[in-house]
Amino acid sequence: MASNMFEEILAALGAHEVRFVAIGGVAATIHGSARFTNDIDICYDTAQDNLERLVRLLTGWHAYLRGVEPGLPFIMDVRAIRTTPIMTLTTDVGAIDLLNRVPGVGDYGAAVAASELVKIGSVEFRALRLESLIASKRAVRRPRDMEHLIELEALLALRKRSKSK
């Protein structure tokens, strides 16, 4: 069920021509991680036209700040995104986290350079390469990221071993 949610979110981002790179759990899953994620994390292009498209999409999904009491005033607009470098949201289609830069990687341009084109179902999009995902987890250093590093580094070692054969 989660993969359908992710596919729906990714497809809508693409259909609305939002420039983004998938990071975090979805990127890890693409590279073979067995860890479950219940949200999608993206690094987005901060150009005005891209933010306007992203805001239109999020507004249609009734985006609201995750962990904030329902009913408190919140306006999803370009200013809100520009002034909040990490925004965690609930939406009608699922949870989405927006980052204007990836720790250990950099801004959207650096994330694009550290990513590859991938496909889930019929949806193509960019996702961080495994090495970049590892660099990001190392930079964040949350306990859960440090635990996840063990699996990600093992996946990288397996990939390197397979290529050398």
Distance between the termini: 36 Å
How many strand elements? 9
Gross morphology is: globular
Low-pLDDT residue intervals, each spanning 5 or more residues: none
The helix-strand sequence is HEHEHEHEEEEHEEHH
Q: What is the arithmetic mean of pLDDT? A: 91
Radius of gyration: 16 Å
Word description of this protein:
The N and C termini lie far apart (36 Å). 47% of the residues lie in helices and 23% in strands. The model has no long low-confidence stretch (mean pLDDT 91). It is built from 7 helices and 9 strands; from the N terminus they run αβαβαβαββββαββαα. A 5-stranded mixed β-sheet has the order 1-2-5-4-3. A two-stranded antiparallel sheet has the order 6-7. It has a two-stranded antiparallel ribbon with strand order 8-9. By secondary structure, the protein is of the alpha+beta class. It has helices spanning 2-15, 24-30, 48-60, 78-82, 108-113, 130-140, 143-164; strands at 20-23, 39-44, 64-65, 86-90, 95-99, 101-102, 106-107, 115-120, 123-128.
Throw out a few tags for this protein:
single chain, 165 residues, alpha+beta, five-stranded mixed beta sheet
Brief summary of the model shown:
It contains seven helices and nine strands; from the N terminus they run H-E-H-E-H-E-H-E-E-E-E-H-E-E-H-H. With 165 residues, the protein is of the alpha+beta class. The longest helix is centred in the C-terminal third of the chain and has 22 residues, at 143-164.
List the helices and strands and how they pair.
Elements: H1 2-15, E1 20-23, H2 24-30, E2 39-44, H3 48-60, E3 64-65, H4 78-82, E4 86-90, E5 95-99, E6 101-102, E7 106-107, H5 108-113, E8 115-120, E9 123-128, H6 130-140, H7 143-164
Parallel strand pairs: 2-5
Antiparallel strand pairs: 1-2, 3-4, 4-5, 6-7, 8-9
